[in-house]
Design brief:
- The termini are far apart.
- This protein has a five-stranded mixed sheet, with helices on one face.
- It has 30 helices and five strands.
- The radius of gyration is 27 Å and the shape is globular.
- Helix 5 crosses helix 6 and helix 12 packs antiparallel against helix 16.
- By secondary structure, the chain is an all-alpha fold.
- Strand 4 and strand 5 form a beta hairpin.
């Protein structure tokens, strides 16, 4: 009787598909996503309604979409309201504009421009979040267990910075780049080698079409596919599919999204021949080799030759400088005065202690989980976790070198953290005490999600926000910015970081925004703000500036005042305006504005 009962239990556990229908986890994931959408939208309703976008890049993205829908050419990526009349060249891709335009264009005739923009900035990031949750659930089902599907999505919703890239109003490309890195990882670990290779290759090509920020992770993913083939000849099917999809996809992206005049040029900050040619050279060789059945030594030789071909092609196209100095084309003055001081480009170890430790907590937890799974898995199950461990580990090293990589390191840590949570919860479920199971599970979730470490770090360090931050926040309220519309349209000199919002909420033009191809204008703006009133006047008249505007004391203003305590910005804030500026009173806003007077005959040669 006991033997029959044990056989009955074994039969039930051997048929997970029958007891757990495939639609069950999908329905649960959909419910989790919808709950997250409701939670995220509810907390941002007013910001969505007023288009209070959290970052200048989000504002500029919406401006680019508006310009395209208004008739600007598909390949014309210049922002003509920056640094007029020539405009500022942008290195962005139209690919990220497509989902925004797909929402705005059909809704605009029905509900108007403002409402359709608000719907787009709410919906598109949530779609990105939904795709990310689905990819994480699939990765968990393949690497951990089918029942573990909910762990990585739940951890993402508590992950702070990664979630912040996919919340309403965050319409720039960072959320899509996260999705594509996850798609590449899924393709590298999925059991169906051909389908996985196609998915990973298309993810690599699509990510490059959007931008090259993820290039180190993408190159590492392709390298891991090659290393897998070296270790296991059966992985040649995945590598071949990846190379064909990545090569064809990259060429298609080059033709579809890169202006014809730039396709054959050298651009280190966007997809160009400098990246496409080496990728295609390596992909062609590896696709040919992986289609055969070479020995282990021959496979190693093919991989080495493909690497040499990629390196030689990059040197032939002049792309070698992209590896040593990707910002070589930036205006030297802008690079010294501005780019070298951008916070997200600085190494993580040069940030404050709270940011440093909080950024490391989740990646370290994820690495521990991946290492645990490699140690306890059967040989056949170690391949996927080895890929996760290497990708997450290298992403963490990249974050130490550049803070902007910390978000990707956190995302790649989610599968490992989820494995710790899933197996830790299974261990707790076997404990007898109800309190141990309940409170232990809660503590486990708070720990593997890095919520508890972040709270402890914040409580112990408690770094105060920069002085003047609250005032700067009030300045960037859309109604406060829009009050400047009472002035006739003209070109304004504002702080570099605030200029995208000025363009979004007013009819004015601006001198400079925080975009490195706008380097000459950036350098001029910084020289004006931190220079003498005489130097500022020469720059302002040369650029035909109509108004000077300022508000609050954000970090950028503090930088100018610390560099030049008696400079143009510091003197304006003290009420010491030169005679060629006339104060303009603007009600219902903290913004201060000065109209630039016309030079007298024989004066203002730079005008």
């Amino acid at each position: 009787m006991r033997h029959e009962a044990s056989l009955h239990i074994a039969a039930r556990t051997a048929r997970p598909a029958a007891s757990h229908p495939t639609w069950g986890w999908r329905a649960g994931l959909a419910a989790l996503w919808l709950a997250a959408c409701a939670w995220l939208v509810a907390g941002r309703l007013e910001a969505i309604r007023t288009l209070r976008l959290p970052d200048g890049d989000d504002a500029m993205r919406l401006l680019q979409v508006r310009a395209w829908l208004a008739g600007q050419g598909w390949f014309d990526l210049r922002q003509y309201r920056l640094d007029p009349p020539a405009g500022a060249d942008m290195h962005w891709s139209r690919l990220v504009d497509l989902p925004l335009a797909a929402v705005i264009a059909p809704l605009r005739p029905l509900i108007g421009a403002a409402a359709s923009d608000a719907v787009a900035v709410a919906i598109v990031p949530l779609v990105t979040l939904g795709v990310a949750l689905l990819l994480l659930a699939l990765i968990a089902r393949r690497l951990i267990a089918p029942a573990a599907w909910w762990w990585p999505p739940a951890l993402l919703l508590l992950a702070g910075p990664p979630l912040g890239m996919m919340t309403p109003l965050r319409i720039d490309h960072h959320g899509w780049q996260i999705v594509l890195v996850l798609a590449m990882l899924l393709g590298l670990v999925t059991p169906d080698r051909r389908r996985g290779g196609i998915g990973a290759g298309l993810a690599i090509a699509t990510s490059l079409a959007i931008g090259v920020e993820m290039l180190p992770c993408l190159a590492l993913g392709a390298g891991l596919a090659a290393a897998s083939w070296l270790a296991d000849a059966r992985e040649g099917e995945r590598l071949r599919a990846l190379c064909i999809a990545a090569g064809v996809g990259t060429v298609a992206a080059l033709l579809a999204f890169v202006p014809s005049v730039a396709r054959l040029g050298l651009a280190c900050d966007a997809l160009s021949l400098a990246y496409a040619a080496p990728l295609c050279a390596a992909c062609v060789m590896l696709a040919i080799a992986a289609g055969g059945s070479p020995s282990g030594r021959a496979r190693a030789g093919w991989i080495a030759v493909a690497g040499l071909a990629a390196g030689a092609t990059m040197l032939m196209t002049g792309g070698g400088i992209c590896l040593t100095d990707p910002y070589h084309a930036v205006d030297p003055a802008a690079r010294t005065m501005w780019l070298d001081h951008v916070s997200e480009a600085r190494p993580l170890w040069r940030q404050g202690a709270e940011v440093f430790l909080a950024s490391l907590s989740l990646p370290l937890i994820g690495l521990a989980g991946a290492a645990m799974m490699i140690a306890r898995a059967a040989p056949s199950g170690r391949h996927g976790w080895a890929i996760v461990l290497v990708l997450a580990g290298v992403a963490l090293l990249l974050a130490l070198a550049s803070t902007r990589a910390a978000v990707v390191a956190m995302v790649l840590a989610l599968p490992g953290a989820a494995a710790l949570g899933h197996h830790g919860r299974a261990w707790l479920a076997l404990r007898r005490g109800l309190a141990v199971r309940v409170f232990g599970s809660a503590a486990l979730f708070l720990c593997v999600s890095a919520v508890a470490p972040r709270l402890l770090i914040a409580a112990s360090l408690g770094e105060a926000p920069p002085p003047g931050e609250a005032n700067a926040e009030a300045c960037m309220a859309p109604a406060a910015v829009a009050a400047l519309n009472m002035l006739p349209a003209g070109t304004v000199l504002g702080l570099i970081d605030s200029t995208p919002a000025l363009l979004l909420h007013t009819h004015h033009r601006g001198l400079a925004g925080p975009y490195h191809r706008n380097g000459r204008a950036i350098a001029d703006a910084m020289r004006a703000w931190s220079g003498t009133p005489q130097a500022a006047e020469a720059i302002i008249r040369r650029h035909r500036i109509a108004y000077v505007v300022a508000c609050g004391q954000p970090a950028e203003a503090t930088l100018y005042d610390s560099r030049a305590p008696n400079g143009f910005h510091a003197r304006l804030m003290r009420g010491d305006a030169p005679g060629w500026l006339t104060p303009v009173r603007i009600p219902n806003t903290p913004w201060r504005a000065w109209a630039v007077s016309r030079p007298l005959p024989g004066e203002g040669a730079g005008a």
